[in-house]
UniProtKB/TrEMBL annotation:
The keyword Transit peptide does not apply. Pfam families: FCD, GntR. Residues 4-73 form the HTH gntR-type domain. It comes from human gut metagenome. This is GntR domain-containing protein. GO terms for molecular function: DNA binding; DNA-binding transcription factor activity. Gene3D superfamilies: GntR ligand-binding domain-like, Winged helix-like DNA-binding domain superfamily/Winged helix DNA-binding domain. The keyword Glycoprotein does not apply.
């Protein structure tokens, strides 16, 4: 169980290095197992398992004899498609972002209402109360924004929809970076 958690944490670290820190870019080859496992302070076995997790998620591609590469995004051939890191460079209005949010959030909430566990429902309600308190205390404050992000994140988690759970944080981060 502990090894599985370490592999999962390593996968999350690699994912962050790729998607948030942009240390490894799309199409780029990762360092070899010895180098990368030493850099991360883990065993090669743990690294292999983390790579397997990210390969099954479509983020990495293992090419036998060549190495491990950051996979190209699924929509790479779409007309006018952009990379996640390019969102903050677009001239996006707050209205655009909130309209996009309104397209996805009601469905996420509907899914959560059908799929959430009892504990997830309790957490959503608890975080909703915190949001209301922070909104009254300081409508423009960072704590309000953070509490709102946690509330929406709990709804997404309870939807048990992997795409929504991965997409909405990108939207939230774009809102935070843009405004």
């Amino acid at each position: 169980m502990q090894k599985e958690n370490l592999s999962q944490r390593t996968a999350e670290t690699l994912q962050k290095m790729i998607l948030k820190e942009h240390i490894y870019k799309y199409g780029e080859k990762l360092p070899n197992e010895n180098e990368l496992s030493a850099k991360l302070g883990i065993s090669r076995t743990t690294l292999r398992e983390a790579i397997r997790i990210l390969a099954s998620d479509g983020l990495l591609e293992v090419r036998r004899g060549l190495g491990t590469f950051v996979a190209q995004p699924l929509n790479q051939y779409a007309e006018g498609s952009i990379d996640v890191q390019e969102f903050s460079k677009l001239k996006i209005t707050l209205r655009d972002l909130y309209e996009t949010r309104m397209i996805f959030e009601p469905e996420a909430a509907a899914l959560a209402s059908r799929r959430a566990t009892e504990d997830e429902i309790k957490e959503i309600l608890r975080l909703g109360d915190i949001c209301q308190q922070e909104l009254l205390r300081d409508p423009q404050g960072k704590r309000r924004i953070d509490s709102e992000a946690a509330f929406h994140g709990a709804i997404l988690k309870a939807s048990h929809n992997d795409f929504l759970s991965r997409f909405m944080p990108i939207l939230t981060e774009t809102i935070e970076q843009t405004f």
